[in-house]
Amino acid sequence: EAGVTQFPSHSVIEKGQTVTLRCDPISGHDNLYWYRRVMGKEIKFLLHFVKESKQDESGMPNNRFLAERTGGTYSTLKVQPAELEDSGVYFCASSQWGGVNGYTFGSGTRLTVV
Amino acid sequence: DAKTTQPPSMDCAEGRAANLPCNHSTISGNEYVYWYRQIHSQGPQYIIHGLKNNETNEMASLIITEDRKSSTLILPHATLRDTAVYYCIVRANAGGTSYGKLTFGQGTILTVHP
Prior knowledge:
Number of helices of chain B: 0
Helix content of chain B: under 10%
Oligomer: heterodimer
Helix content of chain A: under 10%
Distance between the termini of chain B: 35 Å
Structural class of chain B: mainly beta
Structural class of chain A: mainly beta
Shape of chain B: globular
Order of helices and strands of chain B: EEEEEEEEE
Radius of gyration of chain A: 13 Å
Shape of chain A: globular
Strand content of chain B: over 45%
Order of helices and strands of chain A: EEEEEEEEEEE
Strand content of chain A: over 45%
């Protein structure tokens, strides 16, 4: 089966611009998660979708971040306006049954804000 | 904050068993122990999980102490490709809104050398 796909793989934008990251989960996986690692820090949870609904968005850092999953398939994470501290690697993951048997992560999008 | 403690780094000779310890002294009765690894800049990869019984799959074995306060991940015949950061994570698989969330710590950097 195809894995979790994220694009772009890399993005370089200027401070104040908008960037949209996309994640295509494994087909049939109702659960989709966003995580990120900013420079020198640990991987941090951002949010969890079950189908199109936000199950847990406790990790979203502020209202500059907007995640959507229309139709319960792919998801987008928009950062508007981007700040320097948003630089890092954004990972998406998907699972069946809430991840009881583990998640499958994508390769990530490396975001650099200059 | 992560509820686990791991050594920051370990070395292992190729072909030998790698034994990675993890302390989780405050684990709750409904929390599972999960292990993931991250190879270089790829997304984290699920390895194995368990509740209280020892578990084995094609990648590794997981040994959980009887009191469940610690566990050991065993890679039986480490190869150079097993060089990665290994994360031990405790997670409840049901209840509340945050059941899907993984809390990553610093992990253990395992270096497998020839």
